[in-house]
Structures are given as C-alpha cells and as structure tokens.
Amino acid sequence: MKQNLFRENLRKFRENVNLTQKAFAEQLGINVTTYRNYENSNREPDFDTLLLICRKLNVSVDTMLGSTSSYSNDLIKLCKLYNTLDSRNQGALIERAEVLLELQDGRIKYSSLQSSKNSP
C-alpha cells in the first residue's frame, strides 16, 4: 500500500465529511488508537476494514490508495459546504443544482426562470 498517499487521503476524506478520528473509529467499530495508527502510517487496515472505510467515506479503493486522480478542490469545497447544511437546505442545494443543469442544457431559458420568480 502506498502509505503516504493512503494516510493523506484517509485524513482528507474523513475531514471532508466533518468527522473526528474518534467519531469515525466508532462508525467503523474499531478502537480510536487503531484508527490513528492508520492515519499515522504505523499500521495498515486489513482488506475488510479498508473496504468499510471506503464505503463509509463514499470513496473508491482506487482513489483512497491514490491509484486514480483525486477530487478537484472545487468538488471538495462543495462537499464540505453540503455537509454543513441541514437536510432541508441540502435538498434546496440539490434542487438549485438541477435547475443549473437545465439552464446549461438549454432545457429552460433564464428569462422564463426570472418571470416565474416575479409571479405570485
């Protein structure tokens, strides 16, 4: 395993979902000291634990191990912003993103969006 890349990615993806080492270790069902050893490159997780880590962080094993290009800074920033919102506002963000896609694809025109905003 590429220890430095794994360690860096593990920390980065855990922080992206706003979890402490202790909270994430609890989600994994492992001792926090064991988890800290993963992030400090003192120990490697077994295969089943690696799969669980990736599943919990919603990251592929390839990405976690540094075999593919990592996420862009903009995507990481968007994920952090999304994770700080409450569920109502997360839904609103998704709805707005869908509208932006429709605008981008030309399925709706900006002028019709503006006129619907001015309607009661």
TrEMBL record:
GO terms for molecular function: DNA binding. It comes from the Bacteria. The keyword DNA-binding applies. CDD domains: HTH_XRE. Residues 10-64 form the HTH cro/C1-type domain. PROSITE patterns: HTH_CROC1. Keywords: DNA-binding. Transmembrane segments: none annotated. The keyword Cell wall biogenesis/degradation does not apply. This is Helix-turn-helix domain-containing protein. It comes from Aminipila terrae. The lineage of its organism: Bacteria, Bacillati, Bacillota, Clostridia, Peptostreptococcales.
